[in-house]
Specification:
The protein is of the alpha+beta class. It folds into 2 domains: 4-145, Rossmann fold; 150-277, LytTr DNA-binding domain (OB fold (Dihydrolipoamide Acetyltransferase, E2P)), CATH 2.40.50. The chain is 35% helix and 31% strand. A 5-stranded parallel β-sheet has the order 2-1-3-6-7, sandwiched between helices. Strands 12-11-10-14-13 form a 5-stranded antiparallel β-sheet. Strand 8 and strand 9 (161-165) form a beta hairpin.
Length: 279
Amino acid sequence: MNIIKSIIIEDTPANLNTLKTFLTEECPYVKVLGDADNLEDGEALIKQTQPQLVFLDIEIKRATSFELLEKLHKIEAINFEIIFFTAYGTYENATRAIEFSALDFLTKPLNREKLKIAVEKATKKLNQIQTSRQIELLLETLRLPNFKSKKIAFHLTKGIIEFINVDNILYLEADKTITHIYLQDGSKLNALRNIGHYSKLLTFDYNFFPISNSLLVNLDYIKQYIHSELRVILVTGKELYASRRGGQDFRRFLNNNKGKYRNIQGDTWKGKVRKFFGG
């Protein structure tokens, strides 16, 4: 494997030493060209060494590394992959924004196996344009109220990242470790992460509901729900079936949100139908 030039920006000596040790033992092809314990030195080191991979702590000296990324993005100087790391439970909104951008982050204390996987993924997609777009989406999300972006990035095959408007997603379907994403234009994407990853993001921030362990549906595109048959009918005419437990949870959700979903009639629920489909 080719040598990957890297740098580390971390202000805690113990974490820095652990990371260097793990890289030496697990990823010997990653050459650490230097390290910095503050954003100013980190910026200078990036410009000086032109790394391919940067290990970046989210919090540096009571500042955040996003400030550095903002500066580099403005001068189009992000031509490297990034692996973030942070203490468990801190910067929860920021880590969610990182996941939306299909970037990687690791929690401290570092786990050598997870580090190895993250590095392997990063080396497969050393792509300046793609990474720049991911950082752009990340920074855009961080600037928004409640960190609610209009787009989400999906990992596809061959290291490709696809940026999709959330409103264009009809539903997601699990296929073992792959997730199929069905869009309103009739197209389908195959993402390389399991549906649990996307469920965590889309049910937390957006109008999606898991009607089974393998189906995650955009509520805005549901036309009817027939609970006696556990049948969900989309505005496109597509029919999906909830699991028994998923259907019970879905009916409970609708009953608890009658103020928002007022079109429930008997055994059916007529959702909000987009003008795109003609009502």
